[in-house]
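Bumping with the actual sequence this time:
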Amino acid sequence: MGTATMRAVRLHAFGEPEELVYEEVPRPAPGPGEVLVRVHAAGINPPDWYARRGFVNFPVRLRPTWAPPLILGSDISGVVAALGEGVTTWQPGDEVFGLVNFPGLPSGYAEYAVAPATHLAGRPRSLGHIEAAAVPMAGLTAYQFVFEHLRSRPGRTVLVNGAAGGVGHFAVQLVKAAGAEEVIGVASGRHEEFLRGLGVDRFVDYTRTPAEEVVRDADLLIDTVGGPEAHRLLPTVRRGGRIAPVFLGEYHRERAAALGITINDGMWQVRSSGSDLAALAELLDTGKVRVGIDRVFPLREAAAAHRHAEQGHLQGKIVLRVADR
């Protein structure tokens, strides 16, 4: 008998999107405690294109020592195809989704992926596979920060910078669910209707008015943009308030400390968790949280999906369609 194969997108060399090649590769098999998932859809996240470039935007000491060929992608939604030894929580045919193996080696841009059984949750009843694949990394980043790191205490007023993006659009909903009285969303003007539909109380179009000119006394700033100019948002936060960076940013820490502002980074990172994802699935099924889809690409067009992602200004998530159903 020949070796079972599948179609997948592999990275053969670090670099531009063209290095992502759609090809036939060996199908993985689940080991002890693992599940083989027939992938129906795979989400795209910033760590995917960081990995594709070889993590050149990371300090050298923090770069993972991964070597091509690699299958990228940590967010999947699909159907259990086979079980590894000792797995009793799932059965073949179960519909599941998950953030798989993060921050370890990914494997989601493929027709089949192996996942630890504990990294999976039952697919939300209210979502199809495309929508479910858009949830795990971005949704868990926001969920774990709000409900674990902040312990459901976001403060009265929360400012979300980059509110229309993957993490941002989940964050505005989850801080509201956690008790924030006022949620301020910062994005370009074309996203205003989308964000108000998610519950944003006040919208700031940064292309017309910088947030630092019109926002004051936020208890918490969730910054999903970061970058070298992140410090410009310091005036938006009250003395004793907090900044929660999702990506690396320059916040002028001495100035922030002088203003009584705490920067909550280096203390938490999103992690794979089937139990957290199950709790998030309940919020999705009750309608308290919705998922936004920016665009869907077929698996074979993963390179085009990466090019689109790097243009920025997304409204929700980009997803790869792997199976027709």
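The tokens above came from a reply further down the thread. The longest helix spans residues 136-149.
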